[in-house]
Amino acid sequence: MKFFIDTANLAQIKEAHDLGILDGVTTNPSLMAKEGIFGEEAVINHYKTICEMVDGDVSAEVISTDYEGIIAEGEKLAALHKNIVVKVPMIKDGIKAIKYFSSKGIRTNCTLVFSSGQAILAAKAGATYLSPFIGRIDDMNWDGMELISQIAHIYSIQGYETQILAASIRNPLHIVKSAEVGAHVVTCPLSAILGLLKHPLTDIGLAQFLADHAKGNK
Ligand code: E4P
Questions:
Q1: pTM for the complete prediction?
Q2: Mean pLDDT of 16-21
Q3: Cα→Cα distances 102→79, 97, 106, Å
Q4: Who lines ligand 1 at CB under 6 A?
Q5: Cα angle at 114 between 77 and 69, to 5 degrees?
Q6: Whose CA is nearest to atom 11 of ligand 1?
Q7: Contact 56, 93 (CB under 8 A)
Q8: Helix (H, G, I), strand (E, B), or coil: what is residue 57?
């Protein structure tokens, strides 16, 4: 399973990259705004910087919601760097655009996915990645992981090549469960990735080992 980090924060991207386990980055307009990145030029420069930092897929989201606008924006984004994956919302014109991008060899990430029906449409259109938003579904008191599991089953029996990119991850358990039910990729905040490291028995065990080792040095 691939690990992407879900942020536009360069320090966090660097920290995850330095761990040696990072396969890519996802961003969205809200994450860009959170870093104070506004305006086309600033946004484009930020994508270029991220692409130079990480040798992996970098999702860059279109703002347009009409077919022509999505195509124009997506082609411009894709031309920025070989790492760019064009992130397209799950709407009617988005599906048409994904089909177009797929025919041109431009990779896509279909975002804002909340049902298996949407997942089937995106796969039929040839999306490279599909982003079901686990955390936002859980927030509604539904089961985000059940959705990932159902999509994984459908994609497997239908032979769809679209990769399931579990998104809106909130915690380490979401990562473990996503791996268990067959997600191909998880995109996570740095806190969830680092959360995987934690176990009190590791801390207790290490403290004991170091203490025992120190006895020999007295
Ligand atoms: C996916 O690519 C999105 O950027 C992201 O995972 C959304 O997560 P959120 O629900 O925490 O905003």
A1: 0.96
A2: 97
A3: 15, 8, 6
A4: 6, 26, 28, 111, 131, 133, 135-136, 167-168, 187
A5: 30
A6: 168
A7: no
A8: strand
Rounded to whole angstroms, the Cα distance separating 79 from 166 reads: 26
Cα 17 to chain centroid distance, Å, stands at 14
Q: Tokens in use for 78?
A: 């894709």
Tell the residue nearest (CA) to atom 1 of ligand 1: 167
Query: What is the SS3 assignment for 81?
Result: coil
111-158, pLDDT tens digit by residue? 999 999 999 999 999 999 999 999 999 999 999 999 999 999 999 999
**Nearest CA residue ID for atom 7, ligand 1:** 168
Active site residues: 87
- For ligand 1, the distance from its centroid to the CA atom of residue 58, given in whole angstroms, is 14
CA 197/CA 115 separation, integer angstroms = 31
User: What's the 80 CA to ligand 1 centre distance in angstroms?
Assistant: 23
Report the largest interatomic distance among the alpha carbons of the chain, rounded to a whole angstrom.
74
Phi, psi for 55 (deg, rounded to 5) = -90, 75
Q: Render pLDDT for 53-104 as a digit per residue (tens, 0 to 9).
A: 999 999 999 999 999 999 999 999 999 999 999 999 999 999 999 999 999 9
For residue 133, the 8-state DSSP code is B
Q: How far is the CA of 55 from the centre of ligand 1 (A)?
A: 21
Rounded Cα–Cα distance for residues 4 and 57 (Å): 8
